[in-house]
Structures are given as C-alpha cells and as structure tokens.
Amino acid sequence: MRPRTLLALARRNRVALPADDEEGLREWFRFRDFDQFVEVYLACSAALRRPEDFQRLLADFAADQERESIRYTEIQFTIGTHWQNGLAIDEILEAMEESIRAAERERGVVLRLIPDIVRDVGFETADPTLEWAIEGHERGFVVALGLTGREAIYPSEPFAGHFAEARRRGLHGTAHAGEHGGPASVRSVLDACGAERLGHGVRAIEDPELVERLRLERVPLEVCPTSNLCLGLAPDLARHPFDRLRRAGLELSVNTDDPALFDTTLSNEFLRLAATFDYSAEVLAGLSLAAVRHSFLPEGEKRALEERFRAELAELAPRHLGRTIEI
Fold first, then answer.
1. CA dist., res. 319 & res. 194, Å (int)
2. Residue 290 forms part of a structural domain
3. Long-range contact set of residues 83-86: C-beta below 8 Å, sequence gap at least 24
4. 257 conformational bin, left if phi > 0, alpha if psi -120 to 50, beta if neither
5. Domain count, the chain
6. How far apart are CA 169 and CA 163, in angstroms?
7. 125 and 40 belong to one structural domain
8. Do 74 and 27 share a domain, yes or no?
9. How do beta strands 110-118 and 144-148 pair?
10. Does one domain contain both 19 and 90?
11. In what helix (H) or strand (E) does residue 116 lie, and over which residues does it extend?
C-alpha cells in the first residue's frame, strides 16, 4: 500500500494514523525493526474497511507491476486479518476477483493470490483462510495456500491438515521458513505441510545436508535480499547467502517481500544483486526465467510466458547490450 493510498483510505474510513500527510507517512513507513513493520502492516489493514478499498489497493498494485514490466505476480494475502477485523470476506473475494480481471483486461497484468495462514494467530483464522482459498481457487484467481508468521516461535505442524485439504482441492502450498527460524523451520514445512516452494529459506545455508536436500528435491526459494538485510539476516549484501545458494545449485528467484515497506522494487533487487556479485545479463535473465518456472501457473501458461520472456530478451539484449545473450 502506497502512503498516499493509506492516507486517503484512513481519512475516508476515520482511522487514526501517526501522521496526517503523505511525507510523514513515508517516514513512518521507513523500516526500523520487525515490530514497527507489523505496526505499519496492521494500520494499513485497518484502513481497508469496504470492498472498494481492496479494489483501489489492487488497482494501485497492478499499475506498479505494469510500470515495472512484471507480467505475472503471485501475491501473499492475509485474508484472516480482515476476517478478524469483522469484514465480510465473501464480499472482499468478489471485489478482488473483479479487480484482478480488470488488471488483466486493461493492463495485461496477471495477478494471482496466495491467502496465507498466520502461525502466530493459530486456528482462529486458519479455517476461514482455507475456505476462502478454496473458493478463490474454484473461481480461478487463487493458486495456493500459504503459511506465514514467526516460524522460530510458532510451529508449522498444527496446520498440516489444512495443507493436506488444500492439496486435495487442487491448491499448491508454500510457506515462509528459514527467515526468523533456522534449518529446522525449513524441514518442518517440507515434512509437515508439503511446501512446494519456500518464502525466504535462506538460513538453509546453515545446514549442508538441508542444502543438498533442497537441491535434489528442486524446492524453489523466494529470496528477498533487501528484506533480509533489514531484518538482520546478513550485515550487508556481499555477505548475504544468495550467491552461495545459487552456486550450490539451488532453485532461486528474486523477490521484493513488501516493496512499499522495505522501500524497494524488483528492478532494484536485480540491480543490487548484479552490482554486488558481478552477475552477467545471462545470470539475471536466468533468475527471471526461474521465477516463471517456479510459478504455480498451469504448464501450458507457464510455457507461453517463458516463450514471451525469451522473445523479449532476444529483442532487448542487442538494443541495450549490443549482443545477444544465451540462456
């Protein structure tokens, strides 16, 4: 959520904020620590009170994705927060579906959702989240069930049944692990929840046997470098495990986590990695194509998107690099 959008929604819905202008909110958004991050997230969530508020948020997001030339996005979305806030989540589902269809029709931007269960909250919101995910999947705009929250404190095992039911209903499964928690949290989501893809996962580097398992099982990691640095997982990007994980043969893609609250973009993440690790255009293009392959798109759509990427790379490389690139 942009600070400008938060300000407009808060004024309309009479939600108190710590600042009453866009510049003050922009400063408040500036990341300081995880508790402050949660505070900002909860304030943004509280400002969303009506179905049309979610539509405005998605319209802003789609515009940002179009500006970044991001063709396809799988968005983590915590519907349970809004269920706790007393909103009619069936109406939110209808409103979001309408906006997602409009983004594709008007901007050529494809958005899909991954509603997530928050470990910290427990079963209170897990059941409605699963039900919402199943309904959205049947409508064609929800692709997976997710699991978030502080995995170092709250276990993943209690939600194994939710992920089993999601798989039975045709949903994929993904989970945050290896961020707040170490290698044990990664093993937990693999074994208990059958996670097909990991949010973060970078602390797997602490356990060579786990790294080898991830390599052999080809489990993709969604790596968010700027977010990891903000949360203290590495002192600087040069000492971030991204390059070690890549050289170990793991499946990696580059991600933003929460771009507004970590003050980043996907382009910025690619540029920082390239500058720090001296990555070639071939490496960067490979990471972009990896994100396509790791997506939960149907196989036919995945192949079509990869062909589109390759065609655009073939056109852009001679223009900007003066040569072709082989990937």
1. 44
2. yes
3. 83/125, 83/128, 83/129, 84/121, 84/124, 84/125, 85/45, 85/46, 85/49
4. left
5. 3
6. 10
7. no
8. no
9. parallel
10. no
11. strand 110-118
CATH assignment of the domain containing 133: 3.20.20.140
Q: Name, in order, each residue with C-beta under 8 angstroms of 56's C-beta and a sequence gap of 6 or more.
A: 5, 8, 9
Is there a catalytic annotation at residue 74? no
Active-site annotation holder among 179, 222, 251, 269 = 179
Domain-embedded: residue 282: yes
Q: Residues 113, 12: one domain? A: no
pLDDT 10s digits, 276-288? 999 999 999 999 9
Say if CB 267 and CB 254 are below 8 A apart: no
Q: Domain range spanning residue 140?
A: 50-200
Largest CA distance in the chain: 57
Determine the 3-state secondary structure of 200 from DSSP: strand
- pTM exceeds cut of 0.85: yes
Q: Give the tens place of pLDDT for each residue, 193-242.
A: 999 999 999 999 999 999 999 999 999 999 999 999 999 999 999 999 99
74: which DSSP letter? E
Domain contains 228: yes
DSSP symbol at 142? B
* pLDDT of 327 over the 90 cut: no
Residue 174: beta bridge partners? 146, 197
Question: 162 and 288 in one domain?
Answer: no
Same domain, 274 and 289: yes
User: 10 Å Cβ neighbour count for 279?
Assistant: 19
Cα torsion 82, 120, 240, 207: sign: negative
The pLDDT value given to residue 237: 98
Residue 76 maps to a domain: yes
Confidence class for position 249, pLDDT limits 50, 70, 90: very high
Tell me, yes or no, whether 162 and 175 share the same domain: yes
The per-residue pLDDT for range 194-205, each reduced to its tens digit, is 999 999 999 999
Same domain flag for 27 and 158:
no
Buried-exposed string 55-75: b where 16+ CB fall within 10 A, e elsewhere: bbbbbebbebbeebebebbbb
pLDDT at res. 281: 96
